[in-house]
Amino acid sequence: MPKAYWINTFRSITDQEKLAAYIELAGPAMRAAGGTFLARGLPAAAFESGTVERTTLIEFDSVEAAVAAYHSPAYQEALRALDDGAVRDLRIIEAVPETSA
Fold first, then answer.
1. CATH architecture of residue range(s) 4-94
2. pTM, entire model
3. Top-confidence residue, 42 or 1
4. N or C: where does the chain have the smaller number of CB atoms within 10 Å of the terminal CB?
5. What is the rounded distance in angstroms from the CA atom of residue 47 to the CA atom of residue 28?
């Protein structure tokens, strides 16, 4: 089963306190669900329609695991803490299958 990647891009942040509360809860929720943070923070570069707001990349063992993490009670609590404090674009994509040489 291919790994999956959770890509969370903030389009705008309107409440830094709500964002801080979200981060406090979301990180542990993702790790508890089996997620591994690969990158997070402000982009080093953005092109075309890219935004320079906070972006997070998390690896999961599967799409199902990433979707389950989103629906988990712990992550839903993090979303309630964010409560309209930001506009985001969240995607879960399946990894490209490994090829044999």
1. 2-Layer Sandwich (3.30)
2. 0.89
3. 42
4. C
5. 31
